[in-house]
Structure formats: C-alpha cells, structure tokens
Amino acid sequence: MRLPCPICGERDRREFYYAGHAVALERPQEGAGAEAWDYYVHNRDNPCGETRDLWFHESGCGAWIVVTRDTASHAVLGAVLAEEAAR
Amino acid sequence: MRFSGLRVLREGLTGNRGWQAHWRDASPKAAYDVVIIGGGGHGLSTAYYLAREHGITNVAVLEKGYLGGGNVGRNTTIVRANYFLPGNSEFYSHSLKLWEGLEQELNYNVMHSQRGQIVLFHSDGQRDAAIRRGNAMRNQGDDAELLSIGQLKKVLPYLDYDQGRFPIYGGLLQRRAGTARHDAVAWGYARGASERGVDLIQNCEVTGIDIEGGVVKGVQTSRGAIRAKKVAIIVAGRSSQVAAMAGMRLPIESHVLQAFVTEGLKPCIDHVVSFGMGHFYISQSDKGGLVFGGDLDMYASYAARGNLPLVEHVMEAGMTLMPMIGQAKVLRSWGGIMDMSPDGSPIIDRSPVEGLYLNCGWCYGGFKAVPGSGHCMAHLVATDRPHTAAERLRLDRFRTGRGLMDEEGTGAQHNLH
Known about the structure:
Low-confidence stretches of chain B: none
CATH topology of chain A: Folate-binding fold
Structural class of chain A: mainly beta
Order of helices and strands of chain B: HEHEEHHEHEHEEHEEEEHEEEEHEEEHH
Oligomer: heterodimer
Number of strands of chain A: 6
Radius of gyration of chain A: 14 Å
Largest sheet of chain A: 4 strands, antiparallel
Largest interface: A-B, 26 and 25 residues
Helix content of chain B: 25-40%
Strand content of chain A: 35-45%
Mean pLDDT of chain A: 95
CATH class of the largest domain in chain B: Alpha Beta
CATH topology of the largest domain in chain B: FAD/NAD(P)-binding domain
Number of domains of chain B: 2
Shape of chain B: globular
Mean pLDDT of chain B: 96
Order of helices and strands of chain A: EEEHEEEH
Number of helices of chain B: 11
Strand order of the largest sheet of chain A: 3-4-5-6
Largest sheet of chain B: 8 strands, mixed
Strand content of chain B: 25-35%
Distance between the termini of chain B: 44 Å
CATH architecture of chain A: 2-Layer Sandwich
CATH class of chain A: Alpha Beta
CATH superfamily of the largest domain in chain B: FAD/NAD(P)-binding domain
Radius of gyration of chain B: 22 Å
Structural class of chain B: alpha/beta
CATH architecture of the largest domain in chain B: 3-Layer(bba) Sandwich
C-alpha cells in the first residue's frame, strides 16, 4: 500500500504511523460529558468500505494527514493535510 | 451416527458407503426461542451449549455464507491459556479445560494436540515478566514452567542461539497448550448442535434486527423475517455492521492479521514457538506444513489479505529465530479479520436492547476461545446472568474505565493493539 502524502507525493506505507479513524479530529468540548468522550475515544463506525483515517508521516515530512481509502479493497482514494481536514 | 475405531474399520472394508451428513441443512422456521447470528466457531458452540447445558433447542444459527467459512477457518489454530490479567486469565483457563474434554464430548476428532507452547525471552526484563506471567498462570490453576537456556537447547535445538541482536535467554513453557484442527472444531459443534435439534441455516444473511420499545422481536434475513425471543450477535469480524442494525456503535476497529503456511515437511517443529522479540510464532501442522504468523498490518481492514511490509517483517523474524526454515517454500498466506477492541480483550455481554446479546472483540484470541466463548455465551443467553468465567468481559468497561484488561500494558486505545 502506498499513501499519497500531500507534501511528499506517493510514499511506501512503512513511512507512516497509523493513528486510527479520523474521528480524532472531532474532539469534544471539555464539558461534553462521559457519553461524548466514550464515543470519541472508544466507539467507532468501523466501515467496511470507504473510510477516513489519520496517519503520521513519521519517516518523511512529519505531516499528519487524513487518508481516504477503502477498507475492503485497500484502494487509496486520496489524502489531505490534517490541518486542512480539521478546518 | 457415532464415530469409533471399529466404525472406521467397518466402513473401510465396506467401501465407505455408511457415512452420513454430519448435520441437517435446515430451512428457517417462522419463529425461534433463540436466534444466533453467525455460524462460525463461537456461534456454533453457543448453539451446542444452549442445547446441551440449558435444554434450549428451539434455536436457529443463521450464517450468511457456509458454516465455519469465516475466521474459524482463517487462524493459526493455537490453543493456550497463558494470559496474565484477571478476566482473561480465568476465561481462557475455562476454555482450555473445555478443550481438554472436547473430543470425547463431541465424539468428533478435532485433532487437539497438547504439544506445548514455548514463549521465548531475550532480556533480563523479559525473563522477569515471564516469571511473573508464569506465576499468574499457576495461581489460576494452569501449568507454566520456566526453561533455562540449557533446558531450551535440548527441546529446541534448531534455534539460532548465536545471533547477538536478540540473544535467547530462555522460555516460558505451557505443556497443556497446543493446536487443534480449526475446521473440525466448527464441524464438531455443528454436528452436536444439529443432533440436539438446533436448525443450522446457511446462505441466510441477516439484513435487519427488529426492535420494538427497546425489546428485540426478531430479525430480517435474505430468506424472510424470523421472530425470536432472544437474539445473539456472534459475528466477530463483522460485529460493527451487525450491531449497527440494532443502532449500536461498538468499541471495535477491524484489522487484518496475516498467516502463512509452507509446503509439507517431515516433522521438525514439535511445539508452538513464539519469538518474544520479533512478532513471530510458528507450529507445524499434522500434514507437515509450517504454520506461522506475526503482528497485525496495523490499519483498519476488511480485506482478509494483507500487504507486503508485514510479509517481509514476518519472514525476517522467522529467519532471525530459526534460519533452518529458510529453505521451505511458502505455499499460501491469508488474513483473518480481527475485531480489535481498545484494550485487546473480548466482550461477552448483554446489549442495551432487551433480549439482544453481544459476543465480539476477540482480537487475537478467537480460536482458542471457541469452547469457552460458546459455553459462557449460552449461559448468558439462557439465564440473563454472566457466567463466572466471563463476568469481567463487559461492554461498558471502556466507558467506565473499570476492569480494563490491557494485557500488553499499552493503554486502552485502538491503534495500540
């Protein structure tokens, strides 16, 4: 699997650290309550098909990126910088 | 039809014409007391124990493909009880005890082979951890022995003891651990359940779960609606999709775990051997193939096949540990879809919907758990109370933070297990 880093271009998967579903960008407000935090920290949609997850270009430029890919076929559909995705 | 040595002999002499189908291929009735979604190892063992232990035989097992066609056929067949933390410890101990009587009980050869598992350690710190784990195993009532380097060289003479990067210091042996024939476990439970009146329904995909006023009423399937007083979701690998039909979002992320098998060789590896440093473990099947695997590919996947970086990593680890296998040709590889929970431990619990039960999150532990999981799940479904061996496998432990079973000590976070 090769991931298209928006800064470096297409790179080997081994250069990246996987941080899980991009739900990590939707951090609840501090007083949101236990339910919201459980939803954010533990529970996942876990789709079979298209998903968005967060990767860190550890052995490359150091960017955090949001990759859109298919969990059933391993097709990689695109990637944007996490700071742009979070806006 | 009962299996026996005499029967095999008689059938052999009479052209094998007396064998019958091992189970009935049933069609769905309009209603059941219990509907089990998922005809894999865990679903079939649950059906079996519901019938045998609790006398509940008006049960249907719904399988969207064929019986045992999922993860029970996509693992490395290892059976052990060497967990450390309360919760996992008593549960896997319970499961191993059920394994030990399984063949006699089912009258079915599941080829359970207690050949022993040796987990190697490679530093003073790892040795201390192995001693502590071994003591926990013995406190649980299971067996564990620490092997010195001298003892280890006698039982595993083929390891590379000279390599300096990961020097081998010794190993933790569990003699009662071993392997079993994965398909036969599913078939044996299917036969036992079917004999007791359970309907095993293949090619029947569940498309919806009927819930009225917070109480489960039945399921919608590709072969029509089926009413049920109780419904059990036992579909590890697809838990998130099926639970979503009941409006639930689970603490689960699906990952692929690869495994490999070589061409058949003469017997050379007598145990299950785990490399404590390089994410590698290996055993030899009765057919002669070396069956081995490593770690997750480490990203969410339902593909049932992995990528090359992990293949390379596993092969490197194998060559580091036992260079003698380098001449063996790899025949095939496959991937199982792991229901990964945040703390790497399973869930057997009621759901927020009355009459709907959940069995999921098996992570790396699904195959060895088949008897224990079915036994405890059947108890939960029949009595509405958790079995003592599984009362810590709660769904709400992530929300409350109480009773997390983080065996690897990395924290209850999805991408760390």
